[in-house]
Design a protein that fits this description.
By secondary structure, the chain is mostly helical. It has one domain. 75% of the residues lie in helices and 0% in strands. Helix 2 runs antiparallel to helix 3, helix 2 packs across helix 4 and helix 2 runs antiparallel to helix 5. The longest helix is centred in the C-terminal third of the chain and has 28 residues. The chain starts with 5 loop residues before the first helix and ends with a helix.
Length: 122
Amino acid sequence: MNFWDITLWERMYIDLWSVPHFLFGLIAFYLLQKAGMKKVSAFFITIFFAILWELLELLTPIQEYLTNILTDIIFAGLGFYFFALIEKTNIKNSKKIFKISFWLFIFFCVLGYLAAFIRNFF
């Protein structure tokens, strides 16, 4: 199976796009907590933006299963929850985890859009 193959990027439930959705939840938790927002409010804002992201994808040529759309939103929530657990343990490396998550998010998004470009034009 080729890395650029659509079956890796567009599956019914979990695909490679699940990774940036999870990382989005991590990033949102970190940034909203640093902004002084309470966890419950920050969680709902994270889910709101995950839903908004999925709605914006409906305006693009991206074709996703409804189950995958719901899974992407759940993955954003899981990323948020995962970072909340990390923070609860008073880990001192949360800033490093945020930075790594941010760059992995960028990396996977670029890979995903590059894969779509290659699939569509080559």
